[in-house]
């Protein structure tokens, strides 16, 4: 039996401290995000912090499908838009169309539920294909939904969409104010991140990853591959739906442009830039793209911005197919120090045993 000390990941759950369970990186990141409002202006708090968290959640729903299920979707912004339109129709708007004025604690759960059902329906169609065909089907769905909302004035108010969508005021706090909105986005993003991280280690998550690697074998031993995939789409719809509600409150409006093909591709770019191997990747990609959208567009101009995004995307993928996470794994010094510490411990123990004999 080896006498090498166990790493935190190798220890039983009951033998770990709370720091080892959460991880030092998670603790430091959480502390930074909690005190971020004390260091940032209102602009950075909402336009960078809050917006990055919202885009990160939508990209996280894509990461759940692509990273763990092997199903790349270009319809996640469509799912988020479904939740946004429910908020506009059943909440209050200034467009003079619908706006039933239901309370937020009724239409918000309804919006998330409808978005999850829309996602499951898209998944039920898409899981019959694999690879590039799944991408093309979800792109076709996203494009069809864009044109349908643009041409339908009776339900979606056509091209103008809905304006004047306000976040609720609860206990005297208006949730679109910079600090409350940031913490609301942070709470929802943390919940979604923790759920995906926990789900990946659950029985369902491990089964989904096994289906991703070898669906034929999983089907042969009795697993319902289609049901597992569709359920993954439903779970991804919950995350994208919650982000869609926050996105509507952030913009104050929703229109067909919100769910156009461009934003759909941007979500894929964000997820790939950040990395699809871990749930933190989409949030890293969202921060990078949001910073570029906020500052680089003024330097190079709006007409060349997509070219810049494409060049950054190609550069990161060329250097590291796993995105920013892959770069971190490749260059972080901690990995070398950990290997050196393990080597020194092993050689010391071997020397001690040699002296005893």
UniProtKB/TrEMBL annotation:
The chain crosses the membrane at residues 21-38, 44-65, 72-92, 104-125, 132-149, 181-200, 221-250, 256-276, 283-302, 308-328. GO terms for molecular function: ATP binding; branched-chain amino acid transmembrane transporter activity. It is found in: Cell membrane. CDD domains: TM_PBP1_LivM_like (cd06581). Keywords: ATP-binding, Cell membrane, Membrane, Nucleotide-binding, Transmembrane, Transmembrane helix. Its main location: membrane. GO terms for cellular component: plasma membrane. InterPro entries: ABC_transp_permease (IPR001851), LivM-like (IPR043428). It holds the Pfam family BPD_transp_2. It is a multi-pass membrane protein. It comes from the Bacteria. The keyword Cell inner membrane does not apply. This is ABC transporter ATP-binding protein. It comes from Seohaeicola zhoushanensis.
